Automatic annotation (TrEMBL), chain A:
Coiled coil: none annotated. GO terms for biological process: iron-sulfur cluster assembly. NCBIfam families: sufD. This is Fe-S cluster assembly protein SufD.
From TrEMBL, chain B:
This is ABC transporter ATP-binding protein. SUPFAM superfamilies: P-loop containing nucleoside triphosphate hydrolases (SSF52540). Belongs to the ABC transporter superfamily. Ycf16 family. It comes from the Bacteria. PROSITE patterns: ABC_TRANSPORTER_2. The keyword Nucleotide-binding applies. The lineage of its organism: Bacteria, Bacillati, Actinomycetota, Actinomycetes, Micrococcales.
Length: 393, 252
């Protein structure tokens, strides 16, 4: 647990972390909410392998996404007509952009600097679920910006379904109005060669609730960093994730929950499986309980199931508490091998090894999938997970 | 008649890279319908016998044979043994997160029978098996053994025994950790399965308590990886009063 300390940087350069770590008595930023923020790429120091934010990421494979020119034009999307929902392209100067949060690292800022129009997805009232599919992003480096808005007192489910090829740097803003209940599912079922860097910024109003589910199965490098700002009193965030890394695949998620109002609640549950040489996952979970967030109730956990040799899972929970007057704060992290005793038990009841393995792995991952309130998508994801298992067996 | 025949069985485990012999030549034949109690002090190798019959990978067979009607059990995988009709009720059943009891039992039944149970009859069959063992049918929706008490885990083992209908069952200290009521419920389940299917039973226990409810035809006393004495039910009564001391005290 890191207890917050006040960092008092005295120059702009230091504030944005431009000073290299070897340059004298530089006090590193420790309190998560004081991490530098900017929408401009050049405000951030060049990305290097030693930096905390990037040291677990294969940066040499994504230099173009971090620093290169990005195509920020609109791309093909598919979505059905659903009453009480709006899907539209809005200008980058629109006042609503930036209302949920802005980048804290250079790649996200590159995406922000580069997009031309933002995709706005809005719900009012209690619409049917809405799926927006992005299946033709192309393999040239591009930037995207998505704004998801749930009007006050609305209730709905928005699925962002990404597939096909991609070399994408994007920012996704999620604004949950007062009393609204929004579920956002970010589905990464990319082709094998896709590379995808995403920062999600959610702001949750008074008594609002966000359920945010990241599903990463496909892609070569997928880094999705969701942050939730519990800005309104009584707001609630459930941040869930499920991922399955095959040979050579890098799946990363850096989660940040900022309790910034009284009586806020958060639950973070990420579960992943790794199978095959070079399968790589990273989970970082930062929770900050700010000085105003009395009555906070938070628990975060990450569990990884290692199915073969040659994999690596990093799992780093951080909890920072700036007020003592809370209901509860805890975290758990466990990365374990497939338990042969599970296999023995099931096999001793006649269940063949392959089927026993499938039962156990699906059982491990299904907890998160079952939280998606959409049976058709649930069933599809179960099939996708089975295919992952069998493809790598 | 179906027979499970164990001949000169020698088994070792590896601990910290050192091979440690546990079973040192066990001979035991169980015919269909017979109930054999294997009793012995802690560390005598009773559970090793149970897990070796089931095929747990931790136990290395150094010599001897296990045959089921002449078929080489040791050559079978764990699941093949179960499908051949062997069942092990475990002392410490593991919890399996995310796999419901209902899903587990249906999958196991399908694997054992070679076909899925009829949907119409399976539900009531499952419910009856659970209520017979005084298990709330709501447990079917819970994950396998997750959050079950020690007694509930044992009852769940016997539910499986009744549903899967093996030809031979090894009960590994099924009585341990049970209070009198639970012991009765579990014993009734075993006796019911025995009456229904005429299976052979190898009942492994440290205490004679369970033998008040499940009547053995034969009693074998296990000491230091071997059978030290064999007899009928009267041997159990003698153990009840004398304990294992006379097997452990070196004779002058």
């Amino acid at each position: 647990m890191a207890v917050g300390t006040e960092a008092a940087p005295d120059t702009t350069a230091q504030r944005l972390g431009i000073v290299a770590h070897s340059d004298g008595p530089f006090v590193p930023v420790q309190t998560r909410s004081e991490r530098p923020k900017s929408t401009l790429h050049d405000d951030f120091a060049a990305v290097e392998a030693w930096q905390t934010e990037w040291k677990l990421t294969p940066i040499d494979r994504i230099r173009d996404l971090i620093d290169g020119p990005l195509d920020g034009s609109p791309y093909p999307i598919q979505y059905p007509d659903v009453a009480h929902t709006t899907v539209e392209w809005i200008d980058r100067t629109d006042a609503r952009i930036g209302s949920a949060g802005i980048p804290e690292e250079r790649a996200a800022a590159n995406g922000w600097s580069s997009f031309e129009k933002a995709l706005r997805i809005a719900i009012e009232g209690e619409p049917e679920s809405l799926t927006v599919t992005r299946a033709a992003m192309g393999s040239a480096a591009r930037a995207a910006h998505v704004l998801v808005e749930a009007a006050p007192q609305s209730k709905g489910l928005v699925i962002l379904d990404s597939r096909g090829s991609a070399a994408l740097t994007e920012n996704v803003e999620i604004v949950v109005g007062e009393g609204a209940h929004l579920t956002v599912v970010s589905l990464q079922e990319w082709d094998d060669d896709a590379r995808h860097l995403a920062s999600h910024f959610a702001s949750i109003g008074k008594d609002g609730k966000l359920t945010h589910i990241v599903v990463s199965l496909g892609g070569s490098i997928v880094r999705v960093n969701p942050s939730a700002h519990l800005a309104g009193e009584g707001s609630d965030a459930e941040l869930l994730g499920v991922y399955f890394a095959d040979a050579g695949q890098h799946l990363e998620q850096r989660v940040y929950v900022h309790h910034d109002a009284p009586h806020t609640r958060s639950r973070v549950t990420y579960k992943g499986a790794l199978n095959g040489e070079g399968a790589r996952t990273v989970w970082v979970g930062d929770v900050l309980i700010g000085p105003r967030a009395v009555g906070t109730d938070t628990y975060e956990q990450n569990r990884n199931l290692v199915l073969s040799e040659g994999t690596r899972a990093d799992s780093i929970p951080n909890l920072e508490i700036q007020t003592g007057d809370i209901v509860g704060a805890g975290h758990a992290s466990a990365t374990g091998r497939f338990d042969d005793e599970h296999l023995f038990y099931l096999q001793s009841r006649g269940i063949p090894e392959a089927e026993a393995r499938r039962l156990v792995v699906l059982g491990f991952l299904i907890e998160v999938v079952q939280r998606i309130p959409e049976p058709v998508l649930q069933a599809r994801l179960v099939s996708a997970l089975v295919a992952e298992l069998e493809g790598a067996a | 008649m179906t027979t499970l025949k164990i001949t000169d069985l020698q088994v070792s485990i590896e601990a910290d890279g050192v091979k440690k012999p546990i079973l040192k030549g066990v001979d035991l034949t169980i015919n269909q319908g017979e109930i054999h109690a294997v009793m012995g002090p802690n560390g005598s190798g009773k559970s090793t016998l149970a897990y070796t019959i089931a095929g747990h990978p931790r136990y290395h067979v150094d010599g001897g044979t296990i045959e089921l009607d002449g078929e080489d059990v040791l050559a079978m995988s764990v699941d093949e043994r179960a499908r051949a009709g062997l069942f092990l009720a475990m002392q410490y059943p593991v919890e399996i997160p995310g796999v419901t009891v209902a899903n587990f039992l249906r999958t196991a039944k399908t694997a054992i029978d070679g076909e899925a149970p009829a949907i119409r009859t399976w539900g009531p069959t499952l419910k009856k098996a659970m209520t017979d063992l005084k298990m709330d049918p709501a447990f079917a929706a819970r994950n396998v053994n997750e959050g079950f008490s020690g007694g509930e885990k044992k009852r769940h083992e016997i539910v499986q025994l009744e549903l899967l209908k093996p030809r031979f069952a090894v009960l590994d200290e099924t009585d341990s950790g049970l209070d009198v009521d639970a012991l009765k419920i579990v014993s009734e389940g075993v006796n019911r399965a025995h009456a229904d299917t005429g299976l052979g039973i190898l009942l492994i226990t440290h205490y004679t308590r369970i033998l008040r409810y499940i009547k053995p035809d034969f009693v074998h006393v296990f000491v230091d990886g071997k059978i030290a004495e064999e007899g009928g039910p009267e041997l159990a009564e003698r153990l009840e009063s004398e304990g294992y001391d006379r097997y452990l005290t070196p004779t002058a």
